[in-house]
Write a structure and sequence with these properties.
This protein is α/β, with parallel strands linked by helices. 36% of the residues lie in helices and 14% in strands. InterPro entries: Ptyr_pPase (IPR023485).
């Protein structure tokens, strides 16, 4: 069974959404991608939607909406996007913080930089899961 990866942010409208989309595009052979936040927005960030469509031909408006942590399945791996979000107690076996700046309200160049950074991190995560470098046999972390 493929591990479930949850990309967590405060509003689940920008970075975590981009990570979910790119996780599905580049990592789906190895893991399942989900994104969620501790709060939601009525609409995901339309600059993020546009940039991901331009760079990767993925239309997040068709398949994504802002979700709360309770709205997604229990994750094996939790990736925090870097918003110093204190995750409510979510059972998981592994966690890391990618420390990405929020590009909201900034230039397209910032969005492209973040998208490319997320793409690299997704590919690295896929490789590490593939090579069993992430121990998912550990006890659940509470």
């Amino acid at each position: 069974m493929k591990p479930k990866v949850a990309f967590i942010c405060v509003h689940n409208s920008c970075r975590s959404q981009m990570a979910e989309a790119l996780g599905k595009k580049f990592g789906s052979s190895v893991f399942e991608s989900y994104s969620a936040g501790t709060e939601t927005k009525p609409q995901i960030n339309q600059d993020a939607v546009r940039i991901i469509k331009e760079l990767y031909n993925v239309d997040m408006n068709k398949t994504h909406k802002s979700k709360l942590i309770d709205d997604i399945p229990e994750a094996d791996i939790v990736i925090k996007m870097g918003c110093n979000v204190v995750c409510p107690i979510v059972a998981h076996r592994y966690e890391e913080d990618w420390g990405l700046d929020d590009p909201t309200g900034k230039s397209d160049e910032e969005f492209i930089k973040i998208a490319k950074n997320i793409e690299e991190k997704i590919k690295d995560l896929k490789k590490r899961i593939d090579n069993n470098e992430i121990n998912l046999d550990a006890q659940m972390s509470w």
